[in-house]
Amino acid sequence: MSVAFVKEPNDSQVEVLPDRELGEDLNIVTANGLALIDKEIATLEANLEAARLADDKIAAATINRDLRYWRARHATAEVAAPDHDSEIVQFGSRVTIERPDGRRQSFRIVGIDEGDPAAGLLSYLAPLAKSLIGKEVGDVVKAGADDAEIVEISHEV
User: Fold this and answer.
1) How many beta carbons lie within 10 A of that of residue 15, not counting itself?
2) Residue 121: helix, strand or coil by DSSP?
């Protein structure tokens, strides 16, 4: 092929970055999860303005891709809160389990983007969260390699 037909890149061209995967699952969020999405969008918008002022096209392209993701997550977010009169585990519940060795762990069941197991936040799609939803105090669930008993359920806001 002749080099006459090869398009040479220049400083004003930046490749379009592929969009981040949104997934097929419902985007159920807690009120806090929606606030975190809003905060992320605000941060990215400020970063985008800074990238534009610095004429950093690569940073702007990356930030624009992330903004598309978070704006789509915001647009599809369905805020849900647990029924405070219920005695079963549901989305938004905080659940404390006791493992066979006596160790207790507490998790809150939250949306996909809010999940952070190290901070005690389980995405509702996590295997443990799936096994907890619909259960009551005293029920035993599979928690990793062992079973664990549900010892407390609360429906915080």
Assistant:
1) 8
2) strand
Instruction: Let me know how many helices (H) and strands (E) the chain has, helices first.
Output: 3, 7
Range of the domain at 146: 94-154
Q: Which residue has the tokens 């061209």?
A: 13
CA dist 81 → 33, 101, 120, 140 (Å): 11, 32, 17, 24
Counting the structural domains of the chain, the total is 2
Q: Are residues 74 and 101 in the same domain?
A: no
Q: What is the pLDDT of residue 47?
A: 97
Residues pairing with 98 in the sheet? 104, 149
pLDDT digits over 11-47, tens only? 555 566 777 777 788 899 999 999 999 999 999 999 9
- Give the DSSP letter of residue 29: E
